Amino acid sequence: MPKLTNFITKLLHWEFWPTWIVYFPLFFYYLWLSLKARSLFFFTTANPDMEMGGLYNCSKYKQLKHLPVELKPTTLFVKSGSRLPLIRAKLQTLDLDFPIIAKPDRGERGKGVALLKNLSQLKKYLEDSPTDFLIQEYISDPFEAGLFLLSIPG
Question: Is residue 133 classed exposed, middle or buried when 0-12, 13-18 and 19+ CB atoms within 10 A define those classes?
C-alpha cells in the first residue's frame, strides 16, 4: 500500500512530474508572448538579478547572499575540485557538524541533494560532484515551504 500511496501523491502533485510535462502546455503561449515582445527572453526582466530571470540554472549561493543572516542556514560554498582537508577546516570555522546537507549550487528540483551523516559520505559526495556545491546545516524541522508566484499584470 505505501507504493500505491506514493504513486498517487506523485500523480496528484505537479512538482513531482517531469519538467517537460509541466511546461509543455505553456510552450505555445510562450511562443506567442515571444512574438509579441520580439524577444525569446522577455521574461528575464521579471527577476533581473537572477540569471535567465531565475528560470533555469540560477546560483543558489548568489541568491542566498540577498537574505538576512537570521533567515538562512549556515552555508559553505565549495568549488568543484576542492580538497577534503580544506573543506573540513572551513566546516570547523563555521561550526558546522554532521549531519549536513549538500546540494549543487546550480540545480533543479532537488537533484543532487543529499543528507551527509559522516566524513566518508562527504568525501564520496565531493568525489562524485562534477560542479560547485553548497554545504548547509541540517535543519530537522518537519515544516518546509516553497513559493511559486504567478502575477497577472492589470
Answer: buried
- Give the three cell numbers for residue 51: 540569471
Rounded Cα distance, 41 and 55, in Å: 10
Distance, in Å, from the CA atom of 59 to the CA atom of 51, rounded to the nearest integer, reads: 8
SS3 124: helix
Question: Which pLDDT score, from 0 to 100, does residue 57 have?
Answer: 77
In the block, residue with C-alpha cell 577546516: 89
Q: What pLDDT sits at residue 122?
A: 95
Q: Tally Cβ neighbours within 10 Å of residue 76.
A: 19
Q: How far is CA 20 from CA 9, 15, 16, 27, 137, in A?
A: 19, 12, 12, 10, 32
